[in-house]
Amino acid sequence: MSDPARAVWTWESAYPAPAKLNLFLHVVGRRADGYHLLQTLFRFVGHGDVLRFAPRTDGEVRLLRALPGVPPERDLTVRAARLLQQATGCRQGVDIAVDKRLPMGGGLGGGSSDAATVLLALNHLWGLGLSRQRLQELGLTLGADVPVFVFGENAFAEGVGEALRAVSLPPAWYVVLEPPVEVPTAAIFSAPELRRDTPPIAFADLPLRPGQGHNDLQAVAVARNPQVAEHLDWLAGHAAEADRVCMSGSGACVFAEFSGHAAAAALLHRLPPGMRGWLAQGLAAHPLRGLAT
After folding, report:
1. 65 near 98, Cβ under 8 Å?
2. What is the count of structural domains for the chain?
3. Which of 49, 75, 114, 145 is the catalytic position?
4. In DSSP terms, which residues pair with 280 in a beta bridge?
5. How far is residue 142's CA from residue 109's CA, in Å, rounded to a whole number?
6. pLDDT band at 97, cuts 50/70/90?
7. Which residue in 20, 49, 114, 216 is the catalytic one?
8. In 3-state terms, what secondary structure has residue 46?
């Protein structure tokens, strides 16, 4: 595979929007305005959506294939492109095509990753010259997970997810399962039974050892979504060699982490009929990190 850092990105390129996994997600408190205070460790993996762009001279932003049930004006890719136009006074337009490979409501950051790829790609293709920090600020207005994809490194996140510090993570392989259900993030965070008092951890303690860390949202999602519980139970019962078995984000997707490819591939090979899953390598950085400074 070619080195993304050496790639030449043009209008003809296919721009990746990788998935993220939350290797742990702790709810450590709640602000007076109701927003939850989090600590989480984001890891990018080599599987995700793919976006393509074509220039327009009329200033319009057009999504070529709308997502089912999502009006184009609400789609994060369209909103990200229009936000760039508004922030810079840019009069260029674009057609956007999304090859959607990540499930909606899966906890993998698919929509946020798509939005970040739009910000990074069009900032480059339109020649806008915005800094990475400015793109992160714009991304935060679209969603709490957008900034980490613009940040471009595996990261320890605090606050509501916007305070990011880069973390170097060891090589790893992931088996990710996609339960056939969308889990609404707002419903999980608003659940009265959600634990909101996990003791904070120190940045110096990262990365955590295998088996350390958990996802505070997992118990709520599992209790309310039997299909998430079924997939998580299957992983826990068949991934004895895994360093970590966990749900990502607010669900529904669950994953097992392995230090080597062979054990991960063997687990995926045992996946029973009716369960959907895939294998991906953990990335050292976002493939588009070189597009902003």
Report:
1. yes
2. 1
3. 145
4. 174
5. 12
6. very high
7. 20
8. strand
Distance in angstroms (rounded) separating the CA atoms of residues 204 and 190: 31
Peptide bond into 54 cis (omega under 30): no
Residue 267 identity = L
pLDDT interval class at 162 (50, 70, 90): confident
Q: Which residue shows structure tokens 């408190």?
A: 29
Contact assessment for residue 235 and residue 245, using Cβ atoms and an 8 Å cutoff: yes
The full DSSP string for 69-119 is: T--GGG-HHHHHHHHHHHHHT---EEEEEEE--SPTTSSS-HHHHHHHHHH
| 161 backbone dihedrals φ, ψ, rounded to 5° | 110, 5
Q: Is 205 a catalytic residue?
A: no
CATH of residue 69: 3.30.230.10
- % residues pLDDT > 90 (the chain): 89
* Spatial separation of the C-alpha atoms in residues 26 and 291, rounded to whole Å: 31
100 catalytic, yes or no?
Answer: no
Domain span including residue 279:
1-293
Which of 31-35, 206-210, 273-277, 280-284 shows the lowest per-residue confidence on average (mean pLDDT)? Answer: 206-210
